[in-house]
Amino acid sequence: MSVEEEENAAELKIPDEFLKAKCLMNCEVALILEHKYEQLQQMADDPMNQMSQVFEKSLQYVKRFSRYKNPDAVRQVREILSRYQLAEFEGIVSTFPAEFCTSAKTVEEAIAMVPSIKTRGRAHDDEAIEKMLNDLSLIKKFE
Q1: Do the beta carbons of residue 115 and residue 90 sit within 8 Å?
Q2: CA angle, residues 81, 86, 89, in degrees to nearest 5
Q3: What is the pTM of this model?
Q4: What is the 3-state secondary structure (H, E, C) of 76-135?
């Protein structure tokens, strides 16, 4: 992106570092923190390995707001977001709040949440967006 261009996420005009950044969904953060929690529980005798309040609150938060609980479901969500060629941050934004399926029930709601999925030059017509929403809903339904 050139210096003169104004940032506009709705048109995918964002700095390269955001386009290349690896973003995590709440459910992925929950899996990582749960693994760390288990490690800390095994070493609970060592005072250096005590859990901080911030760690515990963070774990509670991501568990509460994670739409998907099953690691296989998380992988399937990633595959769907990749199949529809969403930029990394679009995929993650589209999974908030409460991981997209519960939020966006219509194509219009999805576009309102993530306007860039409808930008020119991309193969996201209303039918494709609706199919993506249905695919994401099916994962949760069968989880």
Answers
A1: no
A2: 100
A3: 0.69
A4: HHHHHHHHCCCCHHHHHHCCCCCCCCCCCCCHHHHHHHCHHHHCCCCCCCHHHHHHHHHH
**CB contact at 8 A, 93 and 28:** no
Among the listed residues 49, 65, 44, 114, the one whose alpha carbon sits nearest the alpha carbon of residue 86? 114
90-120 tens-digit pLDDT: 766 665 544 444 456 788 887 777 777 776 5
Note the pLDDT tens digit of each residue in 23-44.
888 888 999 999 999 888 887 7
Residues 6+ apart with CB under 8 A from 120: none
Are the CB atoms for 118 and 43 separated by under 8 Å? no
- The distance of Cα 135 from the centroid of its chain, to the nearest Å, equals 15
Burial of 6 (0-12, 13-18, 19+ CB in 10 A): exposed
Classified as helix, coil or strand, 137 is: helix
